[in-house]
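#onboarding

Welcome to the new folks! Below is a worked example of what a typical request in this channel looks like: someone posts a single protein sequence, and someone else replies with the predicted structure as tokens. Don't worry about understanding the tokens yet, we'll cover that in week two.

Example request:
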Amino acid sequence: MLFRSVIVLSGDVRAGEVRNLVQKYYGDFPRIDQPSAPREAEPEQRSPRRKTLRLNVRVEKLLMAFPIPAIGAGDVPALDVIQTLLSGGRSSRLRKALVESGIATDAYGYASDARDPSLFILGASMQDGKKANLAEKVILRELERLSTEEVPQIELDRARNILAFDFYGGLDSNSEIARFLGHYESQAGGVEKGLELHQRRLSVTPQQVREVA
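Example response:
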């Protein structure tokens, strides 16, 4: 198996010194063009799979995962917007439906962006005495709403603003810049893809949200 190595440096460095160090520690490795071996797709999942864990915790917790396409797919920007609508900030739909209603103490979500198909995660920690299956019903109801009702423009604009703030806020340190560069170089084939993906998030329409949901 072959692996691609990506070296990222960010900050006040001298290019010549860095090049010499990279040559010193990596120069003996020959360049090999990695073959584009076909990736075997997982079988289509036609019904939910469930697992209940009995752990030594006081409250019930819920974790839900939905298959999503790889980072280069056209639906990925809308999935990021959907995640933000559901769990981004105090005005998000799951916070209102689960936390402010007294069902859960927190609700969260994230869409994994990787070069292979990955998962869209939604989760919640229940209030003492509340059952996880109640949160599941609420989450499924909110997903159904997104797939049948058009998101109000003001709510979509709020989600876009959160995404823009997180994007630029995530580039305010050398370590975050390096993480951004390394992630999109290794997962998307180039940092330009990360910039393009950000711009596409900001142009997602209500119709796209409904279709992708």
